[in-house]
Amino acid sequence: MLPRSALLAATLSAGLAAAAQAQTIYPLNRAEILAGSKFDFKVEFPGAPAAAHLEVTIDGKDAAEVFGAKPTVIEKEDGNDLTAYWLRDVSLAKPGTVKIEATAGDKKKAVAWEVFDTPKGRVAKNVILFIGDGFSVAHRTAARIMSKGMVEGRYGGEFAIDDMPHMALISTAGTDSIVTDSANSMSAYTTGHKSCVNALGVYCAKNKNTLEHPKVETIGELVKRRTGMAVGVVTNSEIEDATPAGVVSHTRKRSDYNDIVKMFWDVKPDVIMGGGSPFFLAKSTPGSKRPDDVDYIKQFESAGYSFVSTKTEMNKAVADGKTKILGLYNTGNVDGALDLRLLKKGTVSKFPDQPDVTEETKAAIEALSKNKDGFFLMVESARIDKYSHSMDPERALFDVIMLDNAVKVAKDFAAKADDTMIIVVADHAHAVSIIGTYDDDRPGQTPREKLGTYADAKVPVYDVDAEGYPKSVDVSKRIAVAFGSSPDTCFNSKPYLEGENVPAVAGATKDTYVENPKNCERPGAVHITGNLPFDANQAVHAGDDVVLTAMGPGSEVFHGRLDNTRVFRAMATALGLAK
Amino acid sequence: MPHPTRGSADRLLTRRHFAAACLAVPLAAFLRPGRAAAEDPVVLTFEQLYASFGVRGLTFSPLVLGAAGRPVSLTGYMAPPLQAEATFFVLTREPMAICPFCQSDADWPVDIVVVTLAAATPLVSAGTRVTVSGRLEVGSKTDPTTGFVSQMRIVDADFRRTR
């Protein structure tokens, strides 16, 4: 056995080594490319062969001839042992399958792309894409129970996000991994191309400079380049964060916040709302996080934007008929609904007049809908994800209710003309599930004693206000949301009334995290041994499929299981964005 | 108000040396009797540094503006240091060790203060509360070697552990 398995291993590793040396062609195999959309075409030839020995063809013809441009060939690009062949900013107009071959001596690599058309032309005047960041099935169910109540197994009402005619399961994996992050998942929605963790609007090549990787055009750029439509980007995260950035950005590294601000400036969405103001301030301004002296707030103002920093200012700008609005409501993330409405923790005392996502959505639609050519709007409820990372279920669920209220605003708008496509989808999942209820009236102190499962769970009762939010989360019988991934932590089943949960803190050993001792002091708290690598300080994303619901013209394509790239395709098709 | 560009913050935060920073240092090494003889320091607190705090930036408080160029003392937490021994560190209002999101996202709080020490000194472990004494500098400055942009610095400084 031993020699055979050793032989097998040797054969396998030889095969892997050979595979590792094959040319890499970007866009990757099976790419779906919107006809007429722009992209960077790159081939990396390992071993840095001389330029004269390279041949790159598209359907058998020289690539340079097909694209009508002269390639740039760089031997030892960035000091890597490869020759890079570049044709930047090219496009393909003719729909169909395209075969690309890259040859260097006896080494040949072939990939196929699908160039797709939008044959029906434009069927939707407007497209509104709602992203519930990290919004998983359990979030949806738990928030519905919380907000609508349940009697004898039936809900007391319907969520706006559920009451939509079309639905699909969306697979979120990236080019590098089964588990994705908010950057490459959003990038798939906004470009139709899959990419890798931390990347936005680029394929992940071997370039050293994060801004030099092969780019693919985003829907924000396409809509601005090819139509007279307005574009809006609305979130309650920092506006530079991955999901909003995905509408306009090209970078291998989502944390390039200062570059991302410049990309917002380059594309100029008509409505931009979120947090993250320090990256808009010149470095000479105290509180700035920029490395240069560009004052982007001033720049946007000089380009005709109304800058607003509070809900009052936002509503006034809209009432005054403004159509270009830059709203930055916090230096960091805008506070979540639970803090804004009930608990007033987080940064609410510093920023007492922040709009929530529902109010932002209402303002954005009012401003954007003044454009006679229609609009594309992306709205994100960002902190469902952030609060699921921090294992703070009540905060996450409040932000699901907020997302639903924002979708309701969009549906009310769409009902006037039935020419708006609305899509509601998560960008990736979290490992969350409903396992019962925590009941303070059960005997004992610890979470395991307080947990009712099966028949003992019964139904939690929250007293809900007119907007569907509980008036208190500190009720005696609460939904028990379990997290399937965790660092070492302490837990007592009670809501985090004193501020967002911090599950773990830096340990004494480098790059290790231990339970937050403050949580261990909470009454009834127990230690939970983590199941994540030791350098994780919070829960992680899950590779599960996510649910998409949609309505309006063009949304009938959503059914069954689809790759995340199909969300872009559906939007581009509804807007007739192909050449 | 120091703020590295995000790139340098990433490097800074991935090169934390907690273990090395935990070297026991004799308390006496931090005490330099006779240094502040000329002028009593203005005692600052993090709460007093800024008059306003908004999305268009921060405004220094009159106390800070009045203390510019003068000896001051300020108590806070030493951010996870780059090296065991260094001539500068970042002082934060809250211990960075309980701000995991700051660390994972390479995102400093906006109200941090850069401390430049009078001499290379062994640093204490991250999250240790320290009182820094030195001369207050106010205004934008980019450190030529690290790329740090700071708005407020305590220079020619020393520090001691405090409660």
TrEMBL record, chain A:
Zn(2+) binds at D133, D385, H389, D427, H428, H541. Residues 1-22 form the signal peptide. CDD domains: ALP. Keywords: Magnesium, Metal-binding, Signal, Zinc. The keyword Lipoprotein does not apply. Its cofactor is Zn(2+); Mg(2+). Belongs to the alkaline phosphatase family. This is Alkaline phosphatase. GO terms for molecular function: alkaline phosphatase activity; metal ion binding. Binds 2 Zn(2+) ions. Binds 1 Mg(2+) ion. The active site is at S182 (phosphoserine intermediate). It comes from Siculibacillus lacustris. Pfam families: Alk_phosphatase (PF00245). Mg(2+) binds at D133, D241, T243, E380. It comes from the Bacteria. InterPro entries: Alkaline_phosphatase, Alkaline_phosphatase_core_sf. The keyword Transferase does not apply.
Automatic annotation (TrEMBL), chain B:
Residues 1-38 form the signal peptide. Keywords: Signal. It comes from the Bacteria. This is DUF3299 domain-containing protein. It comes from Siculibacillus lacustris. The lineage of its organism: Bacteria, Pseudomonadati, Pseudomonadota, Alphaproteobacteria, Hyphomicrobiales.
